[in-house]
Each structure stands twice: as structure tokens, then as C-alpha cells.
Automatic annotation (TrEMBL), chain A:
The protein, known as: ABC transporter ATP-binding protein
GO molecular function: ATP binding; ATP hydrolysis activity; ATPase-coupled transmembrane transporter activity
Location of the ABC transporter domain: 12-236
Keywords of the record: ATP-binding, Nucleotide-binding, Transport
Top-level taxon of the source organism: Bacteria
InterPro entries named among the record's database cross-references: AAA+_ATPase, ABC_transporter-like_ATP-bd, ABC_transpr_CbiO/EcfA_su, ECF_ABC_transporter_ATP-bd, P-loop_NTPase
UniProtKB/TrEMBL annotation, chain B:
Main location: membrane
Protein name (database record): Energy-coupling factor transporter transmembrane protein EcfT
Lineage summary: Bacteria, Pseudomonadati, Pseudomonadota, Alphaproteobacteria, Rhodobacterales
Membership in a protein family: Belongs to the CbiQ family.
Location of the protein in the cell: Membrane
Segments crossing the lipid bilayer: 12-32, 38-54, 88-106
InterPro entries in the record: ABC/ECF_trnsptr_transmembrane (IPR003339)
Topology relative to the membrane: Multi-pass membrane protein
Cellular component terms per the entry's GO annotation: plasma membrane
Length: 245, 199
């Protein structure tokens, strides 16, 4: 990133951000400045990973503290967020809004004010060698193909940062490998959630989230071994004692 | 799965959506003008022949899509059997079948994006009057996308019930199905919000 672009890019900044849902604290007092090109967030089920992603995307507002993306409040300025931040939901079926592939791709572009949204969507499909997909009903696509469609819909909107919620969770091994390769080539900042340390091992920075707080924050070499060891310890503690080893 | 537009290309696919909608309107008006069974039967036969001309798979799909009509037809037969007015009963039944088959044929041979574009043009005067017509087309697209999704969810709930119960689920899945629909609505709202909202 160079020049004016880099100046505008202040990344995602959280200042004392907390989120309480019906009296239960989900995220507590998070202060972070996220500017690295590849960031991984690890944690157990229920540690608040997905909620943190939704908070950064502006899909929920913090109960206290603040969240800023390039100096803009993502929960208020939705239009401004479209070119700054895209989010890939864990379940593609909860992301896809339209009955056909071309419409799903065109929607985001239309939201950004492009009048030639449909033409662009079809051109993008053709560029990917999938021109014949344009009028396919999304219900006929496989899980991996739906996820590809969701990612493509976000990439067309060209946001500066993409948030990925467990992108590999539902994919078979070849599809996951393809997605990994694809993601590696993207110029965007990627923030990836995973409970699997291997999925984020090549990131520049790892956040370990534990009960809505940051337990560790640093390069993968420092954070992931400790995380893996702790997850193994927890697994031991919960093991059924009557089962043979 | 409910895939409304037929993947089998027919000559009708290439007709403009607006023309097909206009013809459908005119034909439906005509159907309601005819009050004796004979001309209606002739139209129904011609329509059946047209379906067969377009191909066996289209004709089979069209026949399947008429299935929701059977309860109404049974009711008609019962009522007009009791009152003895069979000609009137046949007129209404033929009219229902033909009108529904025609509408289905238009749906099957029109791509959704063409249909939405035609709807956009039709509602353009309303847009000039300041009504939010884009929301109307968005709502239509969402409905078409989520009918199959919800019917899948209901199938899953039914399967989960059947897997653990010797009895058929019946009405008991209504509440989980309704909750699933609300849940789905939350996700749709979130996905819309993530990409700039409904505006």
C-alpha cells in the first residue's frame, strides 16, 4: 500500500470496546489497533470470536467503548463501510440473499451505486471462467461453490479489509486448499477467525480470545504453541475418565 | 427444491418478459369471460398440446405444479355434485386449471432477472411518485430465494423429529419451523446490513 492510500488506511481500532447482551458480558474492554495485512483470531467455542468479527464489521454496536474503521464508526456509516470492509459469514446460506448467482454478485455493486452492476457481475464470472453460472439458481451449488460465490460477491465490492469467519469449517480438503491459495494472493487485509491453529499459522499477528478478553496477542510463533498446549490441557481435563486410553 | 425457471431452454424463454406478462393478463381476462365449459376445455386442450410441444420434461413439471389445485378441485366436485350443477363446476375447474397452468408456464420460461426487470419497468411510475419500488423487487427476490431454504429447514426439522420419534411429526413441527423462519430472518437482515441495507 502506497501514498495517499496508506494514509487513509488507519486499520481497525478498538478502544475499551465491550459488548453485553441481555446482561451477559460477551466481549470485555478490548483495546486493539489492527493494521497488519494478515491477522488471525483463535479461541475456543463461545470465546466471542464471531461476536468480535460482527463488532468490527459494524453489525453490532459496542455497549461501551468505541470501534473505528479508518476513523469511521462502522455501526453508523454503513455506506462508508462498503468500500472499507467486507465480511464472509461462516454459513454461506446465511449470506446469500438472491436466487441466482448473477443477482447475488450484482447486489453489492448496486449498493455501492454502480449502475452497470449486472454487466460487471457477468464479466467477473466470465473472467473466472464461470460465465455459464450467471443464471444458475444458488440452490443448485455445492457448499464450496456457495462459499466461493460469497467471497466473489465481497471481492467485487473491493473492500480494503475482509473479515473471514471460520472460512474452512465446512469445506473438504481440496476446496480448503484452493481457498487458502486464493486468499493468499489477495491484496486485502484479511482477519481470519479459526479454532484451528494451522489455519492461521502464516498470519502476521495472532489474537487469542478467551471469555471475551484478549489472552495473548503477538506473532504466531509466540501465541499458537501456548494456545495449542492450553487447548490440549483443556481437552485432557474434560476427557471421560472411564474411556480406555 | 423449488427451482422456478425451467433449465430446459424453450422458444418461449426468448420472448420478452413484458410481452409474456401482458399475454398472461389478456388470457386470464378471457378465461373469466368464458362461462361455458366447452370453449374452456378447448383452451385447456390446446395448452396441454403446447406443453407437449415444448418437451416432455416441461409438461411433466407443469403437471406436478398443478398438484396444489387438487383439494380445491375435489371441493368443487363435491359441491357441484351435491347441487347437481355439473356444467358450472366444470367451468370453474377448467378455468382454475388453465389460469394456473398459464401463469406457471410464464414463470417456467422467464428468467428471474428478466421478470424483475419487467417489474422494475412496470413500477417505474410509482417510483416517480416517490414510492420505494426497489424494496418491492428486493422483497420479491428474497421471497424466491428463501422459499426453498425454508422448505429445506422444515424437511430437516421433520427428519430430526422422525429420527427420534415413532410418531409422525405433523403439526408439532409448526413451532420449531416458525422459530427457524424467524432465525432465518435475523440472518437475512444481518447479511443485508453487511452489504449496505435494503435502501
Amino acid at each position: 500500500m502506497t501514498g495517499a492510500f496508506a494514509q487513509m488506511d488507519q486499520g481497525i481500532v478498538l478502544r475499551g470496546a465491550s459488548l453485553v447482551i441481555r446482561g451477559t458480558p460477551i466481549l470485555s474492554d478490548l483495546t486493539l489497533a489492527l493494521t497488519e495485512p494478515r491477522i488471525g483470531i483463535v479461541g475456543q467455542n463461545g470465546s466471542g470470536k464471531t461476536t468480535l468479527l460482527r463488532l468490527m464489521a459494524g453489525l453490532v454496536a459496542p455497549s461501551s467503548g468505541s470501534v473505528m474503521v479508518d476513523g469511521i464508526d462502522p455501526a453508523r456509516d454503513r455506506k462508508g463501510m462498503l468500500s472499507r470492509l467486507g465480511i464472509l459469514f461462516q454459513n454461506p446460506d446465511q449470506q446469500i440473499l438472491f436466487p441466482t448467482v448473477a443477482e447475488e454478485l450484482a447486489f453489492g455493486l448496486r449498493q455501492q451505486g454502480h449502475r452497470d452492476a449486472e454487466t460487471r457481475a457477468r464479466a467477473a464470472l466470465a473472467a473466472e471462467g464461470r460465465a455459464d453460472w450467471a443464471d444458475l439458481p444458488v440452490s443448485t451449488l455445492s457448499q464450496g461453490q456457495r462459499q466461493w460465490l460469497c467471497l466473489q460477491a465481497i471481492l467485487l465490492m473491493a473492500p480494503r479489509t475482509i473479515l473471514l469467519d471460520e472460512p474452512f469449517a465446512a469445506l473438504d480438503l481440496p476446496t480448503a486448499a484452493r481457498l487458502t491459495r486464493r486468499l493468499a494472493t489477495l491484496p486485502q487485509r484479511l482477519i481470519t477467525i479459526s479454532h484451528n491453529p494451522a489455519a492461521v499459522a502464516t498470519c502476521d499477528r495472532i489474537l487469542w480470545l478467551d471469555s471475551g478478553r484478549i489472552r495473548a496477542d503477538g506473532p504466531p510463533g509466540a501465541v499458537l504453541p501456548a494456545f495449542t498446549a492450553e487447548m490440549a490441557r483443556l481437552g485432557e481435563a474434560d476427557a471421560d475418565p472411564h474411556l480406555p486410553r | 427444491m423449488l427451482t422456478l425457471t425451467s433449465p430446459v431452454e424453450t422458444p418461449l424463454h426468448r420472448w420478452p418478459a413484458g410481452l409474456k406478462l401482458a399475454l398472461l393478463c389478456a388470457a386470464t381476462v378471457l378465461l373469466f369471460r368464458l362461462t361455458t365449459p366447452l370453449p374452456l376445455a378447448a383452451i385447456a386442450t390446446a395448452l396441454a398440446a403446447l406443453h407437449l410441444l415444448l418437451g416432455r420434461s416441461i409438461a411433466a413439471t407443469a403437471l406436478r405444479q398443478l398438484r396444489p389445485l387438487w383439494p380445491f378441485l375435489a371441493l368443487l366436485a363435491l359441491w357441484h355434485g351435491l347441487t347437481g350443477d355439473l356444467a358450472q363446476g366444470a367451468t370453474i375447474a377448467l378455468r382454475l386449471i388453465t389460469a394456473m397452468a398459464l401463469a406457471n408456464l410464464v414463470t417456467m420460461t422467464t428468467r428471474l432477472s428478466d421478470m424483475l426487470a419487467a417489474l422494475d419497468r412496470l413500477t417505474a411510475p410509482l417510483a416517480r411518485a416517490g414510492l420505494p419500488t426497489r424494496r418491492l423487487t428486493l422483497a420479491l427476490a428474497l421471497a424466491l430465494r428463501f422459499i426453498p431454504v425454508l422448505s429445506d429447514r422444515i424437511d430437516t426439522i421433520r427428519a430430526a423429529w422422525t429420527a427420534r420419534s415413532p410418531r409422525r411429526p405433523g403439526w408439532r413441527i409448526l413451532i420449531p419451523a416458525a422459530l427457524a423462519a424467524l432465525d432465518e430472518a435475523d440472518h437475512v437482515a444481518e447479511s443485508l446490513r453487511a452489504r449496505g441495507g435494503a435502501g
